[in-house]
Design goal:
By secondary structure, this protein is of the alpha+beta class. Helices cover about 40% and strands about 10% of the residues. Strands 2-1-3-4 form a four-stranded mixed sheet, with helices on one face. The chain binds FE2/S2 (inorganic) cluster. The site of FE2/S2 (inorganic) cluster has 12 residues, from helix 5.
Length: about 190
């Protein structure tokens, strides 16, 4: 299981400056409207999600600083949240972030075979990206879909009731720019 989150911020992947786009500003306003004015810091998780979606799928320090400034929070408070939750990527990820659950229910139902198949097909071990930067593979804790174990999450979608073959079919379809036909896509993850 991965328990330590190591941050790599390759200089060529970090932008000089991060500012909200017009549409993101509107989204920030919408999110903040859900919280009492003196509790806007409670919006840190949705804002980190928005920032990650808006800018390249990961959260460099400068981007976390933008979230902190937006919420008038100390930078360190935002870092604490972002580094705690595995749904926040602290290093660049590929076009498809493949998160294979290897927690109890999935493990009992064969998640080791899923991870093995994913690593073989992508050529990336857990914690790595494929050479073509198409896939990043992560081994994660329970994603709350135990009843349909084993499962994996690819970007915002869940693929459940998998075996090694169906996991490979999902990734092959994505690689070919197609919509995967296998596995049940039970819900949007965020
Ligand atoms: S143990 Fe894998 S989704 Fe819960």
């Amino acid at each position: 299981m991965s328990s330590v989150r190591i941050v790599h911020e390759p200089a060529d992947k970090v932008r000089d400056i991060y500012t909200w786009s017009k549409s993101a500003k509107a989204e920030v306003k919408k999110i903040l409207a859900k919280y009492p004015k003196d509790q806007s810091r409670s919006a840190v998780i949705p804002l980190l999600h928005l920032a990650q979606r808006e800018f390249d799928g990961w959260l460099p320090t400068k981007l976390m600083n933008l979230v902190a400034e937006t919420l008038d929070m100390p930078y360190i408070r935002v870092y604490e949240v972002a580094t705690f939750y595995t749904m926040f990527n602290l290093a660049p990820v590929g076009k498809y972030h493949v998160q294979v659950c290897t927690n109890c229910a999935c493990m009992i139902r064969g998640s080791d075979k899923i991870l093995e198949a994913v690593e073989k097909l992508t050529g990336a071990k857990a914690g790595e990206s494929s050479a073509d930067e198409m896939f990043t593979v992560s081994e994660v804790e329970c994603l709350g879909a135990c009843v349909n174990a084993p499962m994996m999450q690819v970007n915002d979608h869940y693929y459940t009731d998998l075996d090694a073959e169906s996991a490979k079919e999902v990734l092959t379809a994505l690689k070919e720019g197609k919509t995967p036909k296998v596995g049940s896509q039970v819900k949007e993850a965020s």
